[in-house]
Amino acid sequence: MAYFPAYTDEEIITFLKAQAPHAAIATDKTTLAQHQSGQYGLGAGDSALLAYVEVADVADIQGVLKTARQFHLPVIPQTTATSTVSGSDALGHGIILSTRRMNKIIDVSREDQVAVVQPGVVNQDLDAAARKVGMFYAPDPGSKAMSAIGGNVATNAGGMSTVKYGATWDAVLGLKVVLADGRELTLGHRTLKQAFGYNLTQLFVGSEGTLGIITEITVKLMPIPFGQPITGVAYFPDMKTLGTAVTEVRAAGVYPAMLEALDSATLQALDQYEGTNYAQNNGAMLILRLDTGDQAILQKLKAILAQFGAQNLQVTSVPDEQAKLLKLRQDMLPAVFANGNHVMEDMAVPLSKMAQMMAYISEIAKKLDVQIYTAGHAGDGNVHPTLVWPKAQKEVPDKVVRALRLMFREALRLGGTISGEHAVGLLKNQWNNEELGPDVDQLQHQIKSLLDPMHLLNPGRKID
Amino acid sequence: MAYFPAYTDEEIITFLKAQAPHAAIATDKTTLAQHQSGQYGLGAGDSALLAYVEVADVADIQGVLKTARQFHLPVIPQTTATSTVSGSDALGHGIILSTRRMNKIIDVSREDQVAVVQPGVVNQDLDAAARKVGMFYAPDPGSKAMSAIGGNVATNAGGMSTVKYGATWDAVLGLKVVLADGRELTLGHRTLKQAFGYNLTQLFVGSEGTLGIITEITVKLMPIPFGQPITGVAYFPDMKTLGTAVTEVRAAGVYPAMLEALDSATLQALDQYEGTNYAQNNGAMLILRLDTGDQAILQKLKAILAQFGAQNLQVTSVPDEQAKLLKLRQDMLPAVFANGNHVMEDMAVPLSKMAQMMAYISEIAKKLDVQIYTAGHAGDGNVHPTLVWPKAQKEVPDKVVRALRLMFREALRLGGTISGEHAVGLLKNQWNNEELGPDVDQLQHQIKSLLDPMHLLNPGRKID
């Protein structure tokens, strides 16, 4: 807060309420404390938060932004607050602007193969609505059951099916956004091909609320593939062997819809948590899925896996058994998280470098004596190491920070990125220069200043 | 040219030659006249062209831009000059900067499923290099055999396989670009997932040389699908029936790799040109392709087509017969072009609106007495009417201009875009306000001014 503020908080709140008449505006300490930090980040929210606002419509958003401009307040856009990088935690004497109540599915069109939604629609709800007309919404982040499309777009969320269907950026055809100055722009189209304007739609995808407030999203839907899906699991002596098998599976043209790798530490955690004995298979587990399985493709897949070192391969087309295998990947997180406080990381490297990246992570774990459990979207080189430390210790231990730093550097050295699908938020924004170089970093700041000259929108995140 | 120029052309050329020492620099009238206008636009190139420069490397590009800054000269980026919208014709007392000699395929990686190329690599050559390692490069514009990846990226080129694999924007993972100020930026990554910086890569995809010069492109490769491809042809009483069948085929989850529609006027032109008798089947022709055909999928496809009004369906898995059917689509253009001077247009509408758009085009043809032949990438709502007028008449007839204007308005009214895959160039840049609205139009200009403050790069194209 400024030393000698021109306005009292009460004056600001009165102004805000008049400007955003349909919004639910909370300013009491209990509610503010509840919303100060998201549950999945590092609890970095600022206790100076002024208001938590759930807007009902575009006019409310424009009112919040007018208030922010009037009183020079940071605005923190948010949908379901499930950021893993503290991307929507409270910041300064600011306003959290949540669009979670704007959760209408405006249109689901089988004919156009698109859906139009408000930002607060939960990913799973959109997918369910699409499935009612024989379509599905492809991007499937781990947070699918709780995170909203607005946040998915803001972070360019990926998921398990990215290997076949792409991440959020591949699904978004158009957006409506409210700029910091209050104007609402319509970007992109409801068409599958577009070659008219600059691609401003994608400038906002992954921009983490720093360039504007997303108010409406037009996405591609995919037809549910014809045929019998199959899901399987296989074990490999080590991650390197698994990596080679994944390369061969991908190159074979069978277009798997999922290729997930779990390392042996993760298998042990799973066994401990669930009373299973996956770790006795040793090495690394691959969970795979074909969503268009015919017999010829399945035979081809089995032959490749056998040739490249897969052990104990099980494949099933029985829905219940498939669900059980898929659940393994979901259960992994609570199993790992049960071991203590944790940070789940997210790096992506070129496909051929995934095994090397995973080997490096294991090496760092031993060298620095840090507990690390690594799972990966093996089909797209996206690695998620979870670093765990004792529950008693609130602060992130130095050796964990050291381990993170070394991993990030290795990912960049291998031609990768330190964020594959979780974005940057508060936790990685000091790495801009490292990952992008000073010229691109500067250009990002120029674009930010162009769209948000007062730097009101999620300042200190993504690029600062 | 300015009334009293500060420098003679000779002085400028001497400076240019010193700055771009590896470039082939032509300033003679014959060569300049040759490069004044591309072959596929409306011959709108400016005869005041100062130099035609084929650069050899990034240093040459930087030298050309330094010269342009020094003498305030327009720079027209170009690869193979096959723009259909006069996007790279000569402009003012400017320099055409061609990167066609920068045509190295730097890397084709089966393991990473990416390729890295220079901008001058012809689309077909990249695809051929990828096929050598069991991959392919998906975007397949009609100009595939002659257009280069640099231009494909600059225009966000689509093609027939977009219906399954997406357009150029879906393939591009990273770019190197030289800005107007001479700095080379590296954007994006060699990774399939990316969620770190703002998506500046896609800001340059489709920017038509107005924001920077593309010097290197990293693209996704797709594995050649396992299985037996099949190609087929079917006839429908009219475009509306065809459109409904296409909707059903798409929604069935069989993922066709091509769904091309030809109208009856086009079939008549084909018959005249090739001595065939396609038009006797009346109505509209659909050419379709599955590149992962198994028998179950094929049966499903046949059942849908029969149910929704297809007549005389022929499907083949014999390679020669497939090639023959595919050639139909290619032969369509010379058959249509043989009828006179022409302009081939490009609009995309929501899938469900394609039949309506095509019906509107036929109606306009009758009403204004304009010869129009319409083909469409029916699977993605992308319509290409070709408007033809007598060879003797050099100027575009008024009624053709009126017809174009009406079509564009109808495409926009239907929620579409007036450019699906051919970009904007010189021929559509007066439609920015109409298609995008004044706020987005203004933002485009702000971004242009940010990246190219002297407006040297392809001025008057895309957004001006």
TrEMBL record, chains A, B:
Keywords in alphabetical order: FAD, Flavoprotein, Oxidoreductase
Q: Which domain of life is it from?
A: Bacteria
Cofactor field? FAD
Q: Which GO terms describe its molecular function?
A: FAD binding; oxidoreductase activity
Question: What's a Pfam family this protein contains?
Answer: FAD_binding_4
Instruction: List each copy of the FAD-binding PCMH-type domain by range.
Output: 45-224
Family according to the record: Belongs to the FAD-binding oxidoreductase/transferase type 4 family.
- Provide the protein name: Lactate dehydrogenase (Oxidoreductase)
